[in-house]
């Protein structure tokens, strides 16, 4: 009897276990077995960020056609008023403007890919205030002629291989003897020299020039192209930092002005013409396109005549001390500082107060080094209140020599 009862109890217990494991209506199981089978949250791994691969001169993300491992190219371009308009400047990634002799200014365009340079010029002689600014980047340096001081810098830094002197580099330069300036007049022969990417490439190949160079940093400390742009907050600007018009005085007759185009987000460039007593759009003769820049960078320092070179008024720009500057972007402006140190040290922009690295937004940049004596005439304003200044014509104080 006891055996029968035990067998019956065992059967009931077994039935109870089966009932305990029966599926619930929600599709899960009850009891201990159901708890053990609950799915754990799936952890999604963080995506591996794309490597930061920025173009050296603009900070934009490198595209498939970026000339990786190619040495950048610097081209010296004339800017006396009688030789305007120039060609090829709208294609420059960075455009420098610095005062040379007689209060005139000159340009130096920087290009990432020399093979893509269009007709550019008129090409003029090299000056050390430009060369020293880009020396750390070891560019191909294209010019026609050079000052005696610049010749000494070429020797000092053993730069002959990358010094593409148009007077001696066979086939590098061509002349357009029929060109006419903005007023429809012919120009002197020294204002007729041009080159282009095809000619530079042919010369580099024929002369065996080393055009390879790997850069481990960008020209400026650019804002990461994966991040939004940083609008200048107006730090240490005493007045409203609205900079829809920015005006730079290099001398009485050489002035550069930028008007901000809010639709395109760029600063359009114009230059002062003494004979007109007003500003005129700075256009590229190749495409009739007005020069436009995302960034406008103005750096002040002492610029004076080299002792012993008063006859030609060769100008020395002091870079070792650094100085105060301004950065304009998006219709706003901010006060900054800049540093360079020795010739072999790169230009650095830093915040005005803490001197931390200053971030420049991606894009094309206009950079000018201006005599500290002209700082009080530097101005920015809102276009809604700006008035074009019509002044009496000022004669150009100097006519360039042919070197």
TrEMBL record:
Pfam families: DUF3048, DUF3048_C. It comes from the Bacteria. Residues 26-49 are annotated as: Disordered. Keywords: Signal. Gene3D superfamilies: YerB-like. Residues 57-209, 249-367 form the DUF3048 domain. InterPro entries: DUF3048_C, DUF3048_N, YerB-like_sf. Residues 1-21 form the signal peptide. Residues 26-37 have a biased composition (Polar residues). This is DUF3048 domain-containing protein.
